[in-house]
């Protein structure tokens, strides 16, 4: 009644408003105070009987409040935690009185629980009730999530006899109590949205000022629960890693001698900022001899620590079958590779690759940096260990081979089997390898083949009958034959990367290339021509740098509507180009140092997407006036075009042009008159030209070199 100011309270306030009509803000503050007092939870002496029980409950309540007032986080020995804690707390600063939810997300062993505990103890004195729900995933796996919820709700509602048998909290009375209290809750190690929904019984809001913190390895759990404040766990930096390792290995804050410093660096390169790995390895080395310590650290790169692996592996175990296969492929073959290319390759193998890669990212198993696939060394080692355990003793029965000696052994003995899905071989430290013509025939299911540092080291004296039919990714440095095997079915490869090869041509005749996305033949000095590519509708990238014997390009290039990149730089014998204007997706064309290229083809229609054209070092004498159809061009490089004598007047129609380089065009005497403004042009290099005029119609340039 007094909370809503009804009845006699309403009459009294009406009189106060009349008496203090010039101080209505003061009356308003009284109303707010009375409402707040009404919302305070407490003990009803009419309900809690007899008096000794009431007194006992009040005393316990006061003790809890006093404990809250003196609580603080003990951060001793928690290296780097304070800096991370302040970052998380800063996310909570806005709208302190509102109910907020925050997620802490990261791979296993990064200290999510430790950080959540530190925050919990640091701020709990500001809440009426608080509870730390530890090991949520483990409680569910043991079938005890119901018991955990009972414990949680009993604690925050201060009712030891509370029992809720349904999945949802239907009682309006309980919901009302929860909505009136400021509560701090940490849900640690959550792996599914359903766990949070069950623990909170369908309640979406707690009282004003309440905070819910969720730690997880799966970002999607946070997003699905409506958490928009997400802190991604940071790895320890080098100084923090050394300090943490020293504390556990040497019982000091820093290495004390050269041996300890060297050992620290070896462990840090392996643990890569993961606190759990650093602590586990450091503790295992504490008190051991120097020889033992060095031997154990070297062993870790071959034999992973079981405690670390166990903690990391459950994220893998939660994946779908296809996602598991994709993770193992990435761990064994595609770390550091362009995400788009990996997506194309995985899509051809398993389907729905984009969403599945997103899921691997959300579960903290991989990450993407500058569009390259990244994976923590510990997670990569976990993937390797999973593959090793498929067949600990028989290499040919494993699904993937990536250790040079293992791959070499299987290929030398011609022991490949249908079990193999991928094989990688680094020949840099191995003796020459002669393959039989049938070397690939037994590996019928092989999808990924990667030979590198192999120029002159992998020999095919008797030729090669074919590659496996299911091959999606072929990377072979120094491929020794003049062409690909005639029986090679090219319907499935997504990428052909055969740099430094002895290829003179790729194949004879016309092939069905429905999956091909990328061709790379850099430094293939014997390459004379490129075959008809009209049956490669999805081809996006062609890179043929330093193919010095290449003279002509097929006209079919102009029909490749998906083509985005063409790089023929340093193809010094290239003499002509087909028209590209139908390749409407083309964004970059690089013809640097094609020193025998005398003409540029007519651009018969507008090309909106081509933004970078490099013609530097070519033998061009002029550009066609139709160059104006490159309406999206931002950068035009014609440095060192020593035969260039004139430029078309239509240049001024390149409205998007920002950078124009003519440095070293020693025969260029006249710059065309600019009839239209080129507002975006900010850099023009005319140095070392024979220029005799400069038109004031050009815009004011940030950079002008004459």
Written account of the structure:
Residues 96-253 form the NB-ARC domain. Residues 4-81 form the TIR domain. Keywords: Leucine-rich repeat, Plant defense, Repeat. Residues 585-668 form the Disease resistance protein RPS4B/Roq1-like leucine-rich repeats domain. The protein has 706 residues and is of the alpha/beta class. 32% of the residues lie in helices and 12% in strands. β8 (400-401), α20 (404-412) and β9 (422-426) form a beta-alpha-beta unit.
Distance between the termini: 86 Å
Biggest beta-sheet profile: 14 strands, parallel
**CATH architectural name of the domain at 71-232:** 3-Layer(aba) Sandwich
Q: What is the number of strand segments?
A: 23
How would you sum up the global shape? globular
Reported by name, the CATH topology of the domain at 71-232 is: Rossmann fold
**The CATH class of the domain at 71-232:** Alpha Beta
Helical content class: 25-40%
**Secondary-structure-derived class:** alpha/beta
Individual helix count: 20
Q: List the strand order in the largest sheet.
A: 8-9-11-13-14-15-16-17-18-19-20-21-22-23
Bin the strand percentage.
5-15%
Protein name: TIR domain-containing protein
InterPro entries: Apaf_helical (IPR042197), Disease_R_plants (IPR044974), Leu-rich_rpt_3 (IPR011713), LRR_dom_sf (IPR032675), NB-ARC (IPR002182), P-loop_NTPase (IPR027417), RPS4B/Roq1-like_LRR (IPR058546), TIR_dom (IPR000157)
Keywords: Leucine-rich repeat, Plant defense, Repeat
Domain Disease resistance protein RPS4B/Roq1-like leucine-rich repeats: 585-668
């Amino acid at each position: 009644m007094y909370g809503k100011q009804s009845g006699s309270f309403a009459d009294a306030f009406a009189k106060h408003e009349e008496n203090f009509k010039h101080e209505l803000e003061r009356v308003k503050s009284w109303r707010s105070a009375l409402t707040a007092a009404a919302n305070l939870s407490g003990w009803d002496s009419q309900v809690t009987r007899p008096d000794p029980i009431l007194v006992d409950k009040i005393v316990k309540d006061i003790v809890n409040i006093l404990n809250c007032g003196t609580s603080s986080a003990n951060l001793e020995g928690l290296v780097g935690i304070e800096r991370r804690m302040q970052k998380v707390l800063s996310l909570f600063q806005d709208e302190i009185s509102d109910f907020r939810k925050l997620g802490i997300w990261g791979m296993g062993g990064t200290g999510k629980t430790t950080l959540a505990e530190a925050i919990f103890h640091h701020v709990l004195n500001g809440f009426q009730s608080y509870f730390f729900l530890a090991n949520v995933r483990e409680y569910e796996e043991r079938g005890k999530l119901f018991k955990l919820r009972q414990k949680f709700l009993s604690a925050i509602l201060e009712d030891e006899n509370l029992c809720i048998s349904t999945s949802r909290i239907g009682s309006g009375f309980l919901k009302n109590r929860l909505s009136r209290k400021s509560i701090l809750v940490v849900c640690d190690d959550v792996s599914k949205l359903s766990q949070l929904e069950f623990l909170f019984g369908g309640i979406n809001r707690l009282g004003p000022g309440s905070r819910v913190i969720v730690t997880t390895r799966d970002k999607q759990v946070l997003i699905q629960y409506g958490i928009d404040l997400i802190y991604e766990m940071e790895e320890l930096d080098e100084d923090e890693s050394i300090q943490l390792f020293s504390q556990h290995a040497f019982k000091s804050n820093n290495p004390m001698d050269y041996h300890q410093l060297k050992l620290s660096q070896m462990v840090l390169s392996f643990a890569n900022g993961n606190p759990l790995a650093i602590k586990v390895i450091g503790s295992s080395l504490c008190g051991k001899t120097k020889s033992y310590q060095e031997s154990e650290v070297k062993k870790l790169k071959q034999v992973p620590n079981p405690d670390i692996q166990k903690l990391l592996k459950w994220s893998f175990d939660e994946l779908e079958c296809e996602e598991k296969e994709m993770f193992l492929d990435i761990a064994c073959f595609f770390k550091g590779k362009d995400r788009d290319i990996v997506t194309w390759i995985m899509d051809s193998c398993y389907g729905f690759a984009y969403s599945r890669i997103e899921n691997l990212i959300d579960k903290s198993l991989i990450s993407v940096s500058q569009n390259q696939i990244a994976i923590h060394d510990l997670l990569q080692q976990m993937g390797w260990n999973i593959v090793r355990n498929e067949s600990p003793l028989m290499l040919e029965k494993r699904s993937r081979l990536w250790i040079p000696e293992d791959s070499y052994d299987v290929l030398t003995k011609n022991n490949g089997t249908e079990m193999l899905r991928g094989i990688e071989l680094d020949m840099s430290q191995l003796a020459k390898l002669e393959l039989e013509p049938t070397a690939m025939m037994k590996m019928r299911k092989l999808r990924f083949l990667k030979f590198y540092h192999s120029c002159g080291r992998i020999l095919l004296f008797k030729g090669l009958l074919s590659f496996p039919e299911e091959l999606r990714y072929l990377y072979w440095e120094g491929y020794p034959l003049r062409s690909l095997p005639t029986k090679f079915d090219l319907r499935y490869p997504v990428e052909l990367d055969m740099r430094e090869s002895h290829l003179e041509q790729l194949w004879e005749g016309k092939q069905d290339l429905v999956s091909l996305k990328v061709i790379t033949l850099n430094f293939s000095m014997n390459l004379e021509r490129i075959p008809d590519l009209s049956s490669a509708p999805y081809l996006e990238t062609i890179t043929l740098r330093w193919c010095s014997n290449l003279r002509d390009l097929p006209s079919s290039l102009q029909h490749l509507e998906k083509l985005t990149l063409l790089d023929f730089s340093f193809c010094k014998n290239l003499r002509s180009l087909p028209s590209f204007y139908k390749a409407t997706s083309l964004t970059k064309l690089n013809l640097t140092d094609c020193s025998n290229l005398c003409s540029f083809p007519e651009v018969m229609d507008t090309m909106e997407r081509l933004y970078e054209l490099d013609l530097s070092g070519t033998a061009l004498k002029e550009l066609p006036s139709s160059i104006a159809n490159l309406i999206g061009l931002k950068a035009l490089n014609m440095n060192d075009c020593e035969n260039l004598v004139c430029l078309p007047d239509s240049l001024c129609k390149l409205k998007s042009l920002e950078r124009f380089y003519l440095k070293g065009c020693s025969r260029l005497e006249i710059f065309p008159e600019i009839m239209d403004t080129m507002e975006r042009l900010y850099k023009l290099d005319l140095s070392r030209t024979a220029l005799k005029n400069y038109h004031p119609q050009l815009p004011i340039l940030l950079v002008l070199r004459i």
